[in-house]
């Protein structure tokens, strides 16, 4: 679990991804450590967890004014401000060194556009790695080729398929506008703002390419 600087609705996240709060490694990225205290409170049910954050990673340029108790994290890993990677890449590299290949990114929605774009393209660096990107309101699941995916969001949930490369053989069902063996060019808006229309969930697969499946609750007031 990677804590990023943006806002997070933890109650909503726990309702969707509660199992992550049991034994996942937690890495705070720079100012994302401001969620450590809230996370520790949420994790009171897990008596085995002594600290909120296992690693606090970054150049700490955005967190220098924060007062963070050393009891909230196990280890602080610092890097220079002038470097070749963004802080989130450093966090993922640290986790990958420990053979972790599943990531739940919390608080990366919104903020600076360049950093947002970097987060969206991160999965292309790490083949065969699971990424989920959410703030509790908007959720993105990284979709790889050759796999069958099933999701069960509530009726009326907005669904968008965001291509990161040209897609071949897209199959999408359970939505208002289904697709069968569809080829989608990267950048196309055709697969945006679809809608869940069945309680049985949605099924998705692609033959070639990579994409994000974007889900937004029907009750959300977020728009363009």
Automatic annotation (TrEMBL):
Xref: PANTHER family: THIAMINE PYROPHOSPHOKINASE (PTHR41299:SF1)
Domain of life: Bacteria
Catalytic class of the enzyme: transferase
CDD domains: TPK (cd07995)
Positions of the Thiamin pyrophosphokinase thiamin-binding domain: 139-212
GO biological process assignments: thiamine diphosphate biosynthetic process; thiamine metabolic process
Protein name per the record: Thiamine diphosphokinase
InterPro entries linked: Thi_PPkinase, Thiamin_PyroPKinase_B1-bd, TPK, TPK_B1-bd_sf, TPK_catalytic, TPK_catalytic_sf
Known EC number: 2.7.6.2
SMART domains: TPK_B1_binding
Pfam family, one: TPK_catalytic
Keyword ATP-binding: yes
MF annotations from Gene Ontology: ATP binding; kinase activity; thiamine binding; thiamine diphosphokinase activity
């Amino acid at each position: 679990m990677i804590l990023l600087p943006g806002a997070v609705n933890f109650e909503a996240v726990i309702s969707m991804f509660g199992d992550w709060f049991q034994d996942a490694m937690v890495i705070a990225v720079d100012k994302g450590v401001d969620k450590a205290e809230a996370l520790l409170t949420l994790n009171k049910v897990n008596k085995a967890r002594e600290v909120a954050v296992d690693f606090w990673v970054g150049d700490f340029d955005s967190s220098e004014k924060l007062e963070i108790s050393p009891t909230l994290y196990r280890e602080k890993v610092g890097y220079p401000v002038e470097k070749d990677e963004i802080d989130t890449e450093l966090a993922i590299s640290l986790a990958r060194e420990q053979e972790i290949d599943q990531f739940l990114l919390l608080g990366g929605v919104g903020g600076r556009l360049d950093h947002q774009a970097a987060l969206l393209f991160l999965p292309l660096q790490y083949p065969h790695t699971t990424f989920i990107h959410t703030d509790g309101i908007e959720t993105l699941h990284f979709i790889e080729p050759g796999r069958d995916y099933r999701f069960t969001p509530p009726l009326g949930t907005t669904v968008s398929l965001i291509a990161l490369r040209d897609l071949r053989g897209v199959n999408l069902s359970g939505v208002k506008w289904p697709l069968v063996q569809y080829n989608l060019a990267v950048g196309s808006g055709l697969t945006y703002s679809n809608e869940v229309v069945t309680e049985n969930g949605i099924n998705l697969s692609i033959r070639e390419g990579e994409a994000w499946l974007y889900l937004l609750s029907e009750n959300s007031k977020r728009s363009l």
